[in-house]
Amino acid sequence: MLTALRSWRWLAVLILWMPLKLWAQTSDLSVTPVARVTFDENVRLDGVIEAVQQSTVSAQTSGTVQKLPFDVDDSVAAGQLIVQLEDSEQRARLNQAQAGLEEAQAALVDARQRFKRIEAVHERGLVSRQEFDQARNNLAAAQARVERAQAGVDEAQKQLGYTRIVAPYSGILTERHVQIGESVRPGQPLLSGLSLEQLRVVVSLPQKYADLARSQRQATVTLGDGRVLQTGEMTFYPYADPATHTFRLRMRLTEPNGSLFPGMLVNVRVPVGSRESLMVPAESLVRHGELRALYVLDEQGRPRLRQVRVGARQGDRLEILSGVGEGEKVVTDPAALVGSPWLDNGETGEAPR
């Protein structure tokens, strides 16, 4: 209440204090009419940058951790070794499987030779049909044993390959779940990491804006310094969070660079409607404490200070909710009008005493 009274007292003092000679200098003033324009309404939300590729690598075979070439925050290229498990057991199984394959292949050679001999004499009618069928079945069984032994070798080679864990994509390590010398089992997490090459913005959209945002599919993402980020495809989750009743919205960033990292906070503006509003240049506004005012030309073309109620800012334009009408002319440089720096659109100052 006290602040409001002071603002009104300041307004009255300012009007009385302004030198009369200024009323005759209106021809030198920079003025512009109050314009009625279509004003886009946006809802401002906080979004978070996250990596598109982020995963945890787990063990696919059992063993003891032998090497961990990289630590947390290290950069890793795709295909580089990140974990080496002790592989003596897997190598022994591979050797055993290879020996079984060689045995099966030798048995196949023997069965094939026997079948060829019996087939030759069978054509001359010197062996029974039963012996011929038995030789043919033995050959088929030998071929099946070779295939089974080959599958065993393939499986043993795969298990041996699981002892070498490589990076699935280029990125940085974010967490290490095991230490050298620790025994691991299949499914146990080893390392976590993410890629900085593909990033996206995730934001929670209030339920009342969901339908309109889904139909328009427009959003502006900016950093804290005002820089606008280029975004790509938008993805709307088809369900709401039961706790917050908000819908998740994802947008791909099309210009990831070294200055963007997962976890950073960004501003997301989503258009939710439009309305007609009265707009004036933002620099024409006079601020003092809680007072907001404009210099408006009266019927005689003299500037008069008039209190207004302001709304949202759109670029270099300011929305005026009440206090002026469409077409009225306002002074765009109030500081030049009275020759005092505390009357600019900037910050609060001291009123003349």
UniProtKB/TrEMBL annotation:
Residues 279-333 form the Multidrug resistance protein MdtA-like C-terminal permuted SH3 domain. Keywords: Coiled coil, Transport. Residues 201-270 form the CusB-like beta-barrel domain. Residues 94-159 form a coiled coil. This is Efflux RND transporter periplasmic adaptor subunit. It is found in: Cell envelope. Its main location: other. PANTHER family: HLYD FAMILY OF SECRETION PROTEINS, MULTIDRUG RESISTANCE PROTEIN MDTA. Residues 54-189 form the Multidrug resistance protein MdtA-like barrel-sandwich hybrid domain. Residues 94-163 form the Multidrug resistance protein MdtA-like alpha-helical hairpin domain. InterPro entries: Beta-barrel_RND_2, MdtA-like_BSH, MdtA-like_C, MdtA-like_HH, RND_pump_MFP.
